[in-house]
Design goal:
The complex is a heterodimer of chains A (265) and B (227). With 265 residues, chain A is an alpha/beta fold. Chain A has 12 helices and 8 strands. Chain A has helices at residues 17-30, 47-50, 61-65, 71-74, 100-111, 127-134, 147-162, 177-181, 188-195, 207-215, 226-238, 253-264; strands at 4-9, 35-39, 76-77, 84-87, 116-120, 138-143, 169-175, 198-204. The radius of gyration of chain A is 17 Å and the shape is globular. With 227 residues, chain B is an alpha/beta fold. Chain B has helices spanning 3-7, 26-39, 41-44, 60-72, 85-93, 106-115; strands spanning 8-13, 16-21, 48-52, 76-81, 121-124, 133-136, 139-143, 151-154, 158-164, 167-170, 180-185, 189-192, 195-198, 209-213, 219-223. The N and C termini of chain B lie far apart (69 Å). The chains are: A alpha/beta (265), B alpha/beta (227). At the A-B interface, helix 6 and helix 7 of A face helix 4 of B.
């Protein structure tokens, strides 16, 4: 077994990177994959909270890198999914505690025993971002349908191209079909027109996401949630399945357009 | 005198260190630099380093490797100065500066002007994304889009075979005859010589346009039609 290392990043903060990592991890684990997520946001850790694992942290990623514990000791097993692990970030250190080659070494040790290693990148394009993409086989860029988020996503995609990290895949998060229909929000088509990358998922705005994050129970485990369904679909696409995009608008016109755009690559 | 000293020269600048390499093979110079750093770690720790690579042609993976190796030794690579347009382009892609405040020696500048006169053109076969800045003394041709947040500054004309949504400055050395053409001209701002025009509404059905300074001295864009 050789894990695929997927880094989730965005440039802009607050667009839902950590939420996406938590939900993809849960969706992949519930589908039977062995998953490790790494919180790359050293100094501002969040992923543990969203996964509901905060109170179990004893060791963190900096402890592993500086040799104060073994890798296994820093891997926190999820409450619900025995094949899902979290390596938390250190809260009392900063991004300079880790270097890109530290990340490469750490991830080399994880590859053998898992199917997916998901890395939650911090916002920005500085050291923490460089650490997060250093070992990535594949990078997913999360954006919101807002101009500022799309600009930052464009910048990040440019850097990924320059560093030859392969073509990025795009998640458009928190799309509100009603606003799009009234031309008050960028459509998925508008976003793709600018960014011109592969679309791997569109997640509709859904209050269950916030409720789930606060409870430490990602919405991907909730069969009734639309956003949860979208994340489960993205997880299946990550595994190489072809899954049709969600019909976010009752008429289906958006769906058709997204499908067409996704097919053009 | 050991061999490394002949390959690299290190000077102190107001805002960091300037390391000058010569035209010896890149791998040799890279190891020489790292060796130098490793033998005097206290001197280099925390330094901001600008690298003058003369006419070396460097690609992304080479610069990335060096940057990461320096970063592990506590050194920030912030600028790469080069006579090669390819290397400059690489450095710009990585967000590194390609000029430092100290002017380059006169002879080198003449060399690069003589080599890439205003009639030469830089051809860019990709989309320029936000954060990319292209500076060139001659013309610039892009086969791809110029996204918002990308900038092109050219001494001559700028031709975009794609959507222009970023900032373009043509005739940057004062050439008022320079033009900017694009298949879809929806730039945030256009500049020709010293004229600035805050543009331009996105169009429903874009047509090719050409922007120039008109007879009354205003920067103006008009639709281009064949024939």
């Amino acid at each position: 077994m050789a894990a695929e290392v997927v880094t989730i990043t965005s440039g802009k903060g607050g667009v839902g990177k950590t939420t996406a990592v938590a939900n993809l991890a849960v969706a992949l684990a519930s589908g039977g994959s062995k998953v490790v997520c790494i919180d790359g946001d050293i100094g501002l850790r969040n992923l543990d909270v969203i996964l509901g694992l905060e109170n179990r942290i004893v060791y963190d990623i900096v402890d592993v890198i500086e040799g104060r514990c073994r890798l296994k000791q820093a891997m926190i097993r999820d409450k619900k999914y025995p094949e899902l692990y979290l390596i938390p970030a250190a809260q009392t250190r900063d991004k300079n505690a880790v270097s890109p080659s530290d990340m490469n070494r750490l991830i080399k040790d994880l590859r053998a025993d898992h199917d997916f290693v998901l890395i939650d990148s911090p916002a920005g394009i500085e050291r923490g971002f460089r650490n997060a993409i250093a070992a990535a086989d594949r990078v997913i860029v999360v954006t919101n349908p807002e101009i500022s988020a799309v600009r930052d996503a464009d910048r990040v995609i440019g850097i990924l191209e320059a560093e030859e990290k392969g073509p990025a895949a795009l998640i458009i998060n928190r799309l509100n079909p009603v606003l799009v229909k009234n031309h008050d929000m960028l459509s998925a088509e508008d976003v793709l027109d600018l960014l011109a990358v592969e679309l791997i998922g569109v997640v509709p705005e859904d209050e269950h996401v916030i409720i789930g994050s606060n409870r430490g129970a990602p919405v991907a485990a909730d069969p009734k949630s639309r956003a949860g369904q979208a994340f489960r679909n993205i997880a299946r696409r990550l595994k190489g399945e072809t899954v049709p995009f969600l019909d976010l608008e009752s008429q289906g016109s958006l769906w058709e357009r997204i499908q067409r755009l996704a097919g053009r690559k | 005198m050991n061999e490394t000293n002949s390959l690299i020269q290190i000077k102190g600048l107001r805002d960091g260190l300037l390391v000058s390499l010569d035209d010896a093979p890149w791998e040799e110079q890279r190891s020489a630099l790292l060796l130098q750093v490793d033998t005097q770690p206290a001197f280099f720790q925390g330094a901001r380093l600008a690298l003058d690579v003369a006419s070396q042609v460097l690609h992304v993976n080479e610069l990335v490797e060096l940057r990461d190796q320096l970063s592990e030794r506590g050194i920030a690579l912030w600028a790469v100065i080069s006579e090669s347009p390819t290397t400059e382009n690489t450095a710009q892609l990585l967000g590194l500066a390609t000029r430092i405040s100290k002017p380059r020696p006169e002879e080198t500048r003449q060399f690069s002007v003589g080599d890439l006169g205003e009639d030469s053109a830089l051809f860019i076969n990709r989309t320029l994304r936000s954060g990319t800045r292209i500076e060139f003394a001659g013309h610039v041709v892009v086969l791809g889009d110029v996204n918002p947040g990308a900038e092109i500054v050219a001494g001559g004309n700028v031709i975009i075979w794609g959507k222009l949504r970023g900032m373009v400055h043509a005739g940057s050395k004062g050439n008022r005859k320079a033009v900017i053409c694009a298949l879809d001209l929806s730039a945030t701002q256009l500049r020709i010589a010293d004229e600035v025009s805050a543009m331009l509404k996105p169009q429903e059905n874009p047509k090719p346009e050409i922007a120039r300074i008109n007879d009354v001295g205003k920067l103006q864009a008009e639709f281009w039609s064949p024939g």
